[in-house]
Predict the structure.
Amino acid sequence: MAEKLEFTLSGSSSHTAKLFKYILYNILLQRNVYPDDDFEIERCEGMNHMAISDPEVKQYVETLIQQIDQWAKRQELERVAIALTSVDTLEVIERWTFFVKTKGDAVMTEDTLSEQAGRRQQDFQSQMRRLIVQILNINNILPILDPNNVTFEVYVYTVKGAEEHPRWMRTDDAPIIQGDTEHARLTDIDTADCNVRSFVSYKKPAF
C-alpha cells in the first residue's frame, strides 16, 4: 500500500504580508503622499500592482513586509496602522487601521496541494481587487491632502511576548488625530489566510 504524503501549505503568511504591502502602496498613491511618477507596475500573484519606485522607500517597505511575514507565520500579528502626518506641524491628519486575525497553515495531501495553492492565489487576487476598489471609493470622500506636506509612518501591533526586531522602535500606540475626527469603515475581508477589519480616521476639514 502506497504511503499518502501530507504537506503543509505555508503560503498564508506570505499572502497576508503581500496584502499589506499593496494596501500601503495604494494608500500612498491614492492619498498623494508620493506623486504618480514615483510608482511603477509590479507583477505579483498573477496581478499587476502599483509599487513605489524610490529605492529608499522601497527598501523600507520590503524590510517591513518581511517582518510582518514573520509575525504572521507565528500568528502574532494583531493590527497594522498607517498614519499620514503633516510635515509642517507633525500632526497626524489621517490614520488607516487594519485589525488582523491570521489563520493557521493548511495541511493537505499531495493530490490537493496544487489545487489548493491555485485557489488561494485566486482568493488573494479577488480580495486584493476588493480592497483596492474600497480604497479608491473612500479616497473620493476624504479631504484633499497637500502632496508636498505629507509623510507616513507604519505601526505594527503584535501579541504580548512576540519576538521583537532590533530595527523597530517600541511604542505604546500610534499618535491619534487631534480635534474633530470623521471615520469611514471599509468592508471586512475574509480570505483563506486571514480576516481583516479596517477603517480610516481623518481630521475633519475646517471650512
Remarks:
- The first helix runs from residue 11 to 30.
- Residues 30 and 139 are 7 Å apart (CA to CA).
- The first strand starts at residue 6 and ends at 9.
